[in-house]
Amino acid sequence: MCIEIKMSFMQRINGTIETPTFVKWAGGKSQLLKQFDQFFPEKINFYIEPFLGSGAVFFYIKRKFNPKKVILSDVNEELINAFVMVRDNVEELIDLLKKHKELHCKEYFYKIRAQEPKGLNNVESAARFIYLNKTCFNGLYRVNKSGKFNVPIGSYKNPGILKEDVLKEANKLLQCVDIRVASFEKVVDLAKKHAFVYFDPPYYPLKRTSFTTYTKEVFLEDEQKKLLSVVNELHKKGCKVMLSNSDHPFIKSLYSEFKLSEVSARRMINCNATKRGPITELVVLNY
Ligand SMILES: C[S@@+](CC[C@H](N)C(=O)[O-])C[C@H]1O[C@@H](n2cnc3c(N)ncnc32)[C@H](O)[C@@H]1O
Which residue's CA is minimally distant from atom 19 of ligand 1? Predict the structure, then answer.
């Protein structure tokens, strides 16, 4: 007798809760959702995530709490365009990814990488972005000074270029969601009393060689302090705020007025596999 076991996206596999994330992202929170669950408020009606990345936390929150209103944003224009296309044009996106999958090889990767995203329409640009994310080294996103994506090809035997079920599930969860390109400060104008805001900024580096550049911008002391002032504004407004960051004395001192907890994470993106051991990360709450 054959028993079919359907895996739900919420099923816990080796401590990781599966969500329909369609890009691999530095600092992605999939592996931490199980530990984060205890920190989320009991009810969420209005959810805002200003450092979206792969959207792992959004997908989890949407399935568990089904907030009526959601605003997702990030400064990475190509990433946000991909989310918008998954929401609005998933069938065409799937067709384009099928072509990328068929044609994938080293020469094809570099040909697609050399394309100028501005010369493509939005759905072509989203397909290019997802294709490069799935096939490049470690799913990194790095651009040179003139804004050109410059990560080399990865060494995957069978890269997950097209995961139709994941894209369709993400498409469903993104319906009626407000998705925009914005820097995190914008959240002060958008949030209302009782909104739940989750911040996952580029982490403050434990050592100055740590990976911190996701786009052309850097995110060091000045930006971390600016983020603290945004958190303080939201606190005054009556919002619930949760923030993740590295377990560093500088971050602990910035948020010393708030509730601090620790979670244990594996480093997901490190060039050296031996440096991917567990580390402690901070969770800050104002409630
Ligand atoms: C740690 S990642 C977020 C990872 C995400 N939580 C996940 O699970 O994949 C940080 C994100 O912040 C974005 N970012 C960097 N500077 C920003 C800024 N000033 N405003 C908004 N987003 C920014 C980056 O593009 C990146 O996607």
Answer: 183
